[in-house]
Amino acid sequence: MIAQLIKNVEQVVIGKNEIIEKIIIALLCKGHVLLEDVPGVGKTTLVRALAQSMDLSFSRIQFTPDLLPADLLGISVFNPKDAQFHFQKGPLHSQLVLADEINRTSPKTQSSLLEVMQEQQITVDNKTYKLEDPFMVIATQNPIEHEGTFPLPESQLDRFFMKLSMGYPDEQEELKLLELNISAKTLPVIVDVQSIMESRKKAEAIFVSESIKRYIVRLTRATRRHELVDLGASPRATIALYNASKALAYLRGRAYVIPEDVKELFIDIVSHRIFISPQAKYQGKSEKLILKEIMDSTAVPLEV
Asked: What is the pLDDT of residues 215-241, one digit of tens each?
């Protein structure tokens, strides 16, 4: 099923199997994704293709400095004909939401989005509206531009299940892009909502041995003790890594988690949740490099 889904999306997005798989993992774990990438690499096309392939409602929100929380959530509008207020839904009422350039809007608007991500409900004028399940936000930010941006604070970054980067296509992939007529493509539905819900339950039921659980905990705790890390990964990161490893094992057709599942997802789950020291930056070390060092120095369980 997942292989069919990836093949379907590949009709409009070339060579991003790994990214598609990881976004599906986040969806199975009820998580949200932060995509840090330069403009023009196909983020909107990818998310729209996923929405079409899974029969999910889709909306794209371009974040700007003047965007207000009401622009996302919706607003109550007075109708003089019946002398009543009627609620007009905002774009966050879709199932798959692309929040483009989230770091270009004010902290107040960012906060309203992240609250909805956490609660999966919207409250306007003391009335609460439950969002349709599945609900997922894929937020993007440009890693290069800093002027006129509002960086997400630590507590809000921690709300994202994983952080990914699509990167530029290689030469062969870019040649294939020239032959695609993306604008004319309407993709068929491969997976319906019921299948997604069933897959979630199956992923949750994947077996994790005691040795793998201890391995996950050792990895995240090591980020808190590292001399070049000012703020280590929270327990939320530990839980996310545990759930993501189960989802990956499920996608690979296994009924149990192996150390390679954990290692494959560790950096994507944790890199945006740690904050390295100025000394680390002076030494030319990034979050990913430090996490790789932690993986290399942490004993891998021999039995699963």
From this structure: 999 999 999 999 999 999 999 999 999
Distance CA 64, CA 73 (A): 15
* Strand 229-231, strand 275-276: pairing: antiparallel
| Superfamily of the domain at 205-297 | Magnesium chelatase subunit I, C-Terminal domain (1.10.8.80)
Q: Alpha-carbon distance 108 to 179, whole Å?
A: 43
Residue 193, classified by CB atoms within 10 Å of its CB into exposed (0-12), middle (13-18) or buried (19+), is: middle
CATH class held by domain 2-193: alpha beta
Cα 185 to Cα 9, 10, 149, 178, 268: the distances in Å are: 10, 11, 34, 14, 30
DSSP secondary structure string for all residues of 147-177: TT--PPPHHHHTTSSEEE------HHHHHHH
Tell me the pLDDT tens digit for each residue of 252-262.
Answer: 999 999 999 99
Please provide the average confidence, as pLDDT, over all residues in the chain: 90
pTM listed for this prediction: 0.92
β-bridge mates for residue 275, sequence order? 231
Q: Dihedral (C-alpha) 231, 235, 239, 242: value to the nearest 10 degrees? A: 60
Query: Residue 303 pLDDT > 80, yes or no?
Result: no
